[in-house]
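Long-time lurker, finally posting.

We've been working with Coenzyme A biosynthesis bifunctional protein CoaBC (Streptomyces venezuelae) and I want a structural starting point before designing mutants. I don't trust myself to interpret raw outputs, so I'm hoping someone here can both generate the structure tokens and explain anything notable. Sequence follows.
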Amino acid sequence: TAAPDLTGRHVVVSAGGTREPLDPVRYLGNRSSGKQGYALARAAAARGARVTLVEANTGIPDPAGVDVVHVGTAVQLREAVLKAVSDADAVVMAAAVADFRPAVYATGKIKKKDDGGAPTVELVRNPDILAEISADRALPGQVVVGFAAETDDVLAHGREKLRRKGCDLLVVNEVGERKTFGSEENEAVVLASDGAETPVPYGPKEALAETVWDLVVPRLRATT
Ligand code: C5P
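Top reply, 14 upvotes:
Generated this for you. Predicted structure of Coenzyme A biosynthesis bifunctional protein CoaBC:
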């Protein structure tokens, strides 16, 4: 059994992928399964934390002993995360949040045009939740962790993203055939704002989850 090193702590984890509706039957989505976020939530609960899991479109049953908030869109995920982090010791943003959403939501199904043409979908930016919670820490010493899926120059892009987002830890994984999206396995490097870089070999998402908490625990603010 895990050491109860998150006892008395409240941690917030986001998981899954947001869906941005175009009309009542269509959305823009992504391939996130939510498995890594659920592994993080279960691991934190096993280590004694009170866990709030903000879940988007995973279809995974609620884990025992975890408070689950179900959301659909990036805007809803932001609301739920901002509410949950107000008293959180740590936040892990494992969800794949859509960077853009359709500028307008069509209340009726978008129809094919008689002239054979196709509609143009205009997109607008979604708020960057990770950057926002990193910049405006709800509590002093709150530990903020992000994820980044990259396809090339993984470390260089990861280091740049860690700085840009302003988080304490960034889990950088390479998107590949047998890992990351939908897979049971992952391989990553965890970059820390203090310069530490922790490689995590190819293995189950549960193992990466434990490594993330191992790196969060020593960075938590002291309790009185
Ligand atoms: O910029 P990119 O999408 O690669 O960053 C990924 C990280 O940022 C993840 O931790 C994700 O949860 C978070 N994110 C966010 N809000 C967005 C986009 C990404 O919090 N709009």
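Before you design anything, note these points.
Helices lie at 35-46, 74-84, 129-135, 154-165, 205-216.
The two ends are 26 Å apart (CA to CA).
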